[in-house]
Amino acid sequence: xxxxxxxxxxxxxxxxxxxxxxxxxxxxxxxxxxxxxxxxxxxxxxxxxxxxxxxxxxxxxxxxxxxxxxxxxxxxxxxxxxxxxxxxxxxxxxxxxxxxxxxxxxxxxxxxxxxxxxxxxxxxxxxxxxxxxxxxxxxxxxxxxxxxxxxxxxxxxxxxxxxxxxxxxxxxxxxxxxxxxxxx
Amino acid sequence: xxxxxxxxxxxxxxxxxxxxxxxxxxxxxxxxxxxxxxxxxxxxxxxxxxxxxxxxxxxxxxxxxxxxxxxxxxxxxxxxxxxxxxxxxxxxxxxxxxxxxxxxxxxxxxxxxxxxxxxxxxxxxxxxxxxxxxxxxxxxxxxxxxxxxxxxxxxxxxxxxxxxxxxxxxxxxxxxxxxxxxxxxxxxxxxxxxxxxxxxxxxxxxxxxxxxxxxxxxxxxxxxxxxxxxxxxxxxxxxxxxxxxxxxxxxxxxxxxxxxxxxxxxxxxxxxxxxxxxxxxxxxxxxxxxxxxxxxxxxxxxxxxxxxxxxxxxxxxxxxxxxxxxxxxxxxxxxxxxxxxxxxxxxxxxxxxxxxxxxxxxxxxxxxxxxxxxxxxxxxxxxxxxxxxxxxxxxxxxxxxxxxxxxxxxxxxxxxxxxxxxxxxxxxxxxxxxxxxxxxxxxxxxxxxxxxxxxxxxxxxxxxxxxxxxxxxxxxxxxxxxxxxxxxxxxxxxxxxxxxxxxxxxxxxxxxxxxxxxxxxxxxxxxxxxxxxxxxxxxxxxxxxxxxxxxxxxxxxxxxxxxxxxxxxxxxxxxxxxxxxxxxxxxxxxxxxxxxxxxxxxxxxxxxxxxxxxxxxxxxxxxxxxxxxxxxxxxxxxxxxxxxxxxxxxxxxxxxxxxxxxxxxxxxxxxxxxxxxxxxxxxxxxxxxxxxxxxxxxxxxxxxxx
Lengths: 184, 706
Description:
The structure holds 2 protein chains of 2 kinds.
Chain A: E1 3-6, H1 30-41, E2 45-51, H2 53-56, H3 62-78, E3 85-89, H4 105-114, E4 122-125, H5 128-136, E5 141-145, H6 150-156, H7 158-163, E6 167-169, H8 172-181
Chain B: E1 3-12, H1 20-37, E2 44-50, E3 53-62, E4 68-76, H2 77-80, H3 89-97, E5 107-111, E6 114-123, H4 128-142, E7 162-169, E8 172-173, E9 177-178, E10 181-182, E11 186-188, E12 197-199, H5 206-212, H6 219-236, E13 240-241, H7 244-252, E14 259-264, H8 274-284, E15 288-291, E16 297-305, H9 313-343, H10 349-353, E17 357-359, E18 363-364, H11 365-382, H12 393-402, H13 410-414, H14 421-429, H15 435-443, H16 458-478, H17 492-506, H18 512-525, H19 534-552, H20 557-564, H21 571-585, H22 590-606, H23 623-644, H24 648-657, H25 659-668, H26 676-696, H27 700-703
Antiparallel strand pairs in B: 1-3, 1-7, 2-3, 4-6, 5-6, 7-8, 9-10, 11-12, 13-15, 14-16, 15-16, 17-18
């Protein structure tokens, strides 16, 4: 089974330090939607794992988050594609949950809920903690993108990125073109 | 009780071939039901049919009706006897009606709490002989006759004029008269080989007596005889019969004493496409055609005559030469059409289509192909499929453009059944036309019948849908010729079913409603006025055909209805929902989900919700209520995602997870409270759950059976 596990904010849509609090604030990165379509055409299972502490902080409700995701799904539909699953962590750092990245909980949720073998998966994120979480869950193929927080993260964690053998790309479509399409 | 066999035979003038079997079947059915109504016992009914006779033998028919009882009810006991306990006039009158003199023989039964006089009267069964005329009169009058005819100056009508009537029960003639013929025990044999009447003394002699008079009355025996004769001849010629199944029933309906003969035609004709040869031989002459092991036609044919070979050997050679002469004239024509069509530029035939009317209000065939080109392009751009990535739009449009060209050729004018096939032939001879376009020109006509194969090529399947949706919309909305009952002159039902089968088999995903609007738009652009309501009418007309499709595939109608009641974008969606519901039916929890759906439906029907579409979290007070809403919110994301994935089973499973929460909500929360806001909010919660279920299927349809 070919599996891709992606972060949401900064990878699929434009990130905001002010949180994404409504469907209007959720703006897709068009090339990333095309990248998802490409992955699906190459028979990948595509899952999203995302921290949404805004729920725990009371900035927006789960209902609003559902609406945001519905917008995302509808956009995928316009491109005649879809994803296979989405999990999120609604907690704040203070809750000390097991799912907030860099902990691997969300990846385990994907493994159990959708019956996925994580060893074969690759993971894409725009921050180090996305990929640390992936690494702890047993994923070796880790790709960082320069969209979202990416550029800041590269400057900040140069050494760790090298330690974890994380490869860096321009954006999600670049990852897919370089790592997936070329190898097939 | 005695039992005898009954024989009934009507002798007719030559019956139309297509009427033989429907007539026999309906006659047997009618007789069976009439005998049952009259409580007459029998063991079996055997039917016989030839071009000149219809007959049935009812075996072991009892000679009288079974005795039976009729329950009669009289006056109430309190008015039936006076104070001295003497019967009143009412009681005496009832006793008389029951054929009794003594009132005390009557029963007293409790009817609705009051004692009432009653009697079950024994009725002695009537004699079969007396009942038979009425039974057969009704059975014949009720039988299916598509085009009845009248003859002479009589007022009655039947398929064809009647010449004799035979009816015997045991050895006795049954006194019966219909269509001006009185019954006898006489029948007649072969029209030319047996002149005198034949007396039948017993039903069991019927078949053998006719056999001696050159008539094989049993349909299946006659059919088997033809089959074995034809196959014997083919074996001697080391050949295969190409059209045995298509023709054998018709030939069986044309002969009483079938004799198969081999004939020849000139090898020169083999340059004509074999489909044309077969059309000429099968359509007009009812000949069986032969081909060799490589599929090449042989210059041979088999004809089935109604005259036995042995009677007159010189006659046989005359029959052969006569047939050969007629055939060679027909094949000459076919060869001429083929060569003269070939000389013309196939692509230019579209000019001639401008003079051929498709339908009065819908313009010419040229107009139709122009629309089909546009629809094909629309389908190409708006259909999702794993397959049509390989299609070149250019070739698809070319195929659409030439799709009706062959209708202007002389060959198709003479042999209409060759439409498509000839287009493909002529296109292949034209070097400017790509091969897959030529192939599609006949491919898109499939499926011709309900058992036929579907188009094989990618171009063929899109073109097949484009052509059929154009016909459906045009005839239905433009010409306003809605199919009614069994009348469907343009085959719209078959066309709709074909669209369904092609999309399902090839997983072609397109928005059916939008396709219909697009086609309606084309007709409107041509100046036709089409009411808005036709969009929905045609949409449901096509979805209605899915019912037939699922019946053929053994899916319960309730499952079909459950999905039918929901909003469906494409035929593929519809089918996925049906699959999901079928899979869910195996889950014991479906009953719970169906009950929930029904219960919520009932509540919502009685209580209109004011316009609040979102649940107001601030006025949730009961913990059960909060718990349910939390759970709805938690599954909603996944629900939407699965909706996007068209994974309808997963969607229903998600709602199933809510089951315990919904139950405790119903058990512990009062929904119809005084406070308007709270009540509305609770109704919105319920509406939300129902919407989730109804997105996939109206499960309350299934509730009726579980």
